[in-house]
């Protein structure tokens, strides 16, 4: 204190002789003076102007009412060390209102409160002083300069002790919380922040420091740089950044030296602590202005020794999390993590339109098979690198499956054009350079929160849709697509249940010799009752059966049922009627197809020639050799073969010659072209072709007598259609045949 003060009374300095103190570089204690008397502010400030407590000066804040005091408390909070508070101001209890606001509303318990009043009659009750943790209560006349100094010094010490205790508690809470939530993304950050906070509180400092570690030890980085894992104070914004981003050469030098020497560094103005556990090392840089005492060094040694096990566990759990949520090859988030990223989109609170995209590399399996898996892996890493280079950090990247990558970000940044642009240039994989083509599915997010797994499902629906579009390589998800997909899955499930419950029916449409109109056979037609007296169209359910693979089992049932009915007809006196059934490509792909057809025919006891297998041109063109081999084998067994819908697809005469055919069917669309006095050129061509190839021809869809007459003139052998008989269940077929026999 200045030697000018030689009495114990508050001293007033002449304003003319008062000079403002120069601002010190040292930290300051914030002192809030709350009083409606300007003179009290001036006297208090002058009496304490030269005071230093623990090498720190005082910084005075002034409020002249309870309302102004609350505004300052909102701004400064617990950084205010002492409040010198008048009780009676705009109201008789204005000061106590400020106390309640600080302790109850703001929940700040660190600032020390000294109540002052010029009206002793308004003294607060003893219970108020206890409840609101008030340090002292004095009348203004009691507070001589010496007593004010003593009160302020003791209150500052009390504030510092409470702050240190709270800081230590917060540091421990951070460590404990992060240790109990190690699988969370921020566990390392929280743990390292806790280390900084705890160490700072142990040596009686504000939390102002950083924890650094080599990239390879904890962070997912390929380089060997040093990164900031956790930080507090001014350094908090640099977490997960390279230490060079601090732009502080001294910190870089000392941290690097600590990691290189693998020991603590305690020097003038520099304190760097070395943390190591089973090779997982870090350097804790402390922003100190004074040297750490020997006692504090020993305390820190014990603390670091204890905390190192926790640091090792954090690393191990981080590795475990990486195994669960990171793709091992590209180091991108995997499918699980991408779902989490999409799930968190509900928390983005952004007005921007968000978009998810899936990118499927076309024919990637050919690359793997042709160049080897190692080249394939290098190519995938090159794709990941390209995506990182072409899309900023705001766009999240992921490897969803073997050759499928995911993007998520603003819709303006995740577009088909930008994705295609990223794949314009070829990719290098070892000694190979190759172009890649991709298919893209995209899904724009709605404004309402959505589950990540649902977003991914919709994006995948769009991707599958894009693969079926020949004119473009991308597709955006639309609700009607999902509705169609949902309907398809529902129908497939229903079809499977009804097939298992034997609800499907096999109907028969008669086939006749055109000249005599005698019934020579039937076509077996599958019918699926809808449960309401009607039937679901085969145009709807047959593609569903093929899509789901259920057509294989249904196909065998149709053959089995046909053989069974043929045997029953033979018993009824119709031994030479045949049944034609359709066969699809999934059935041919079944390795047991030929063997199963032979077995069903043999078990039924019918002649193999009475079963006719019908195929379409599209089936032949899909898998020509598989179809030709299977039909050749069955033909040798005695089964007859017909080609259905001939002329409607992409015919190949070379395949047609290789097929072991017995019959050509003229499609109903060509029969419908027949008009009196006109020539049906295609129908005529097909009949002529069949005759040249030595095949029987049968016309479908004959509904009028003139159509039948025209086909007879062309030389067509057989026919089916409403003119001769509609499709009917087996019992009706038996009655139909009996009537025809009687006639």
UniProtKB/TrEMBL annotation:
Domain GGDEF, residue spans: 352-479
CDD domains: EAL, GGDEF
Domain (EAL): residue spans on this chain: 488-741
Highest rank taxon of the organism: Bacteria
Keyword Disulfide bond: no
Annotated positions of the 4-aspartylphosphate modification: 86
Protein keywords: Phosphoprotein
Domain Response regulatory span(s) in chain numbering: 30-155
InterPro entries, per database record: CheY-like_superfamily, Cyclic-di-GMP_PDE-like, DUF3369, EAL_dom, EAL_sf, GGDEF_dom, Nucleotide_cyclase, Rev_trsase/Diguanyl_cyclase
Short name of one Pfam family: GGDEF
Protein name stated in the entry: EAL domain-containing protein
Organism name: Alteromonas oceani
């Amino acid at each position: 204190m200045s030697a000018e003060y030689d009495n114990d009374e508050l001293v007033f300095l002449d304003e003319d002789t008062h000079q403002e103190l120069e601002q010190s570089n040292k930290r300051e204690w914030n002192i809030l003076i709350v009083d409606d008397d300007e003179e009290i502010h001036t006297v208090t400030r002058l009496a304490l102007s030269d005071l230093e407590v623990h090498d720190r000066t005082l910084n005075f804040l002034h409020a002249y009412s309870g309302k102004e005091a609350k505004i300052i408390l909102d701004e400064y909070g617990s950084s205010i060390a002492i409040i010198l508070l008048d009780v009676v101001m705009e109201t008789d209890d204005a000061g106590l209102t400020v106390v309640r606001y600080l302790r109850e509303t703001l929940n700040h318990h660190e600032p020390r409160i000294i109540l002052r009043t010029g009206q002793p009659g308004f003294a607060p009750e003893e219970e108020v002083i206890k409840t609101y943790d008030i340090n002292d209560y004095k009348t203004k006349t009691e507070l001589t300069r010496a007593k004010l100094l003593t009160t302020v010094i003791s209150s500052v010490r009390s504030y510092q002790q409470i702050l240190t205790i709270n800081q230590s508690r917060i540091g421990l809470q951070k460590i404990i919380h992060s240790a109990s939530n190690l699988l969370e993304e921020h566990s390392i950050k929280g743990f390292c922040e806790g280390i900084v906070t705890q160490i700072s509180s142990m040596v009686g400092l504000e939390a102002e420091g950083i924890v650094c570690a080599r990239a390879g030890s904890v962070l997912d980085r390929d380089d060997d740089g040093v990164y900031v894992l956790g930080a507090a104070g001014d350094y908090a914004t640099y977490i997960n950044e390279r230490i060079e981003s601090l732009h502080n050469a001294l910190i870089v030098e000392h941290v690097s030296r600590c990691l290189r020497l693998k020991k603590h560094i305690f020097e003038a103005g520099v304190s760097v602590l070395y943390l190591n556990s089973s090779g997982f090392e870090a350097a804790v840089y402390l922003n100190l202005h004074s040297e750490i005492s020997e006692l504090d060094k020993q305390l820190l040694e014990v603390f670091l020794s204890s905390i190192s096990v926790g640091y090792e566990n954090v690393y191990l759990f981080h590795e475990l999390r990486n195994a669960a949520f990171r793709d091992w090859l590209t180091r991108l988030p995997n499918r699980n993590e991408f779902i989490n990223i999409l799930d968190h989109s509900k928390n983005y609170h952004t007005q921007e339109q968000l978009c998810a995209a899936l990118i499927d590399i076309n024919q990637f399996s050919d690359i793997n098979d042709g160049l080897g898996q190692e080249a394939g892996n290098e190519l995938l890493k090159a794709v990941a690198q390209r995506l990182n280079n072409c899309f900023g950090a705001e766009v999240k990247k992921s490897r969803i499956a073997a050759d499928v990558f995911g993007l998520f970000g603003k819709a303006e940044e995740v577009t088909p054009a930008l994705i295609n642009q990223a794949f314009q240039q070829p990719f290098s994989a070892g000694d190979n350079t190759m172009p890649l083509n991709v298919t893209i599915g995209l899904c724009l997010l709605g404004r309402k929160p959505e589950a990540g797994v649902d977003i991914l499902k919709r994006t995948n629906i769009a991707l599958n849709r894009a693969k079926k579009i020949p004119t473009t390589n991308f597709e955006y998800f639309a609700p009607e697509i999902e509705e169609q997909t949902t309907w398809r899955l529902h129908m497939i499930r229903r079809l499977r249940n009804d097939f298992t419950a034997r609800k499907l029916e096999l109907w028969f449409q008669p086939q006749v010799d055109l000249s005599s109109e005698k019934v020579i056979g039937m076509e077996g037609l599958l019918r699926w009752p809808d449960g309401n007296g009607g039937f679901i169209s085969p145009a709807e359910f047959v593609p569903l059966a093929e899509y789901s693979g259920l057509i294989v089992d249904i196909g065998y049932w149709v053959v089995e049922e046909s053989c069974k009915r043929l045997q029953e007809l033979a018993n009824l006196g119709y031994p030479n009627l045949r049944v034609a059934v359709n066969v699809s490509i999934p059935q041919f792909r079944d390795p047991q197809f030929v063997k199963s057809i032979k077995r069903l025919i043999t078990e039924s006891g019918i002649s193999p020639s009475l079963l006719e297998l019908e195929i379409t041109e599209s089936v032949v063109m899909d898998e020509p050799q598989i179809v030709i081999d299977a039909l050749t084998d069955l033909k040798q067994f005695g089964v007859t073969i017909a080609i259905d819908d001939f002329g409607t697809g992409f015919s190949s005469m070379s395949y047609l010659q290789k097929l072991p055919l017995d019959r050509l069917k003229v499609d109903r669309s060509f029969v419908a072209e027949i008009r009196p006095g006109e020539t049906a050129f295609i129908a005529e061509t097909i009949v002529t072709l069949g005759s040249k190839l030595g095949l029987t021809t049968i016309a479908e869809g004959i509904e009028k007598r003139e159509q039948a007459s025209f086909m007879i003139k062309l030389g067509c052998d057989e026919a089916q259609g409403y003119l001769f008989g509609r499709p009917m269940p087996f019992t009706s077929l038996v009655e139909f045949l009996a009537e025809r026999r009687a006639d």
